[in-house]
Design brief:
By secondary structure, this protein is of the alpha+beta class. It has a single domain (5-126), classed as 60s Ribosomal Protein L30, Chain: A, CATH 3.30.1330.40. Helix content is 23%, strand content 28%. It has helices at residues 49-66, 87-98, and strands at 5-7, 22-25, 28-34, 74-81, 104-109, 119-126. It has a 6-stranded mixed sheet, covered by helices on one side. α1 (49-66) packs parallel to α2 (87-98). The two termini are 21 Å apart.
Length: 128
């Protein structure tokens, strides 16, 4: 069995439970869901879904970088939304962060998200 490496960076919010920000295994990065917490202050964004998505994807990019990956190596994302009516606003920010890269994606409306946030994103990526 290959070795698993837990990812831990202070450029993204610390895990708020018994889990890792990401785990690297055999060239794959499995990122835990990121929510809109500012890693510098530990405070959650009080902005709308667009502002929250911006922070979530910056956090996700920081975790990927610490894992030896990047947004352009993401294979699959899962987007959790508190309200599916926020999809267009989230999607606009999401598209800007991924550019021409188009990973597979699922978008799900969740009854509740951690700390009452509007959006959470997790992903699977390859390492460099």
């Amino acid at each position: 069995m290959s070795e698993l490496r837990a990812v831990d960076t202070d450029r993204a919010p610390r895990a708020i439970g018994p889990y890792s920000q990401a785990v690297v295994a055999e060239g794959w990065v499995f990122c835990s869901g990121q929510i809109p917490i500012d890693p510098e202050t530990g405070e959650m964004s009080s902005g709308g879904v667009g502002e929250q998505t911006e922070l979530v994807l910056r956090n996700l990019a920081a975790v990927l970088d610490a894992a030896g990956s990047s947004m352009h190596l993401v294979v699959k994302t899962t987007v959790f939304l508190r309200d599916m009516n926020d999809f267009a606003a989230m999607n606009e920010i999401y598209a800007r962060h991924f550019g021409e890269h188009r990973p597979a994606r699922a978008a799900i409306q969740a009854a509740a998200l951690p700390r009452g946030c509007a959006v959470e994103v997790e992903c699977v990526a390859r390492t460099v």
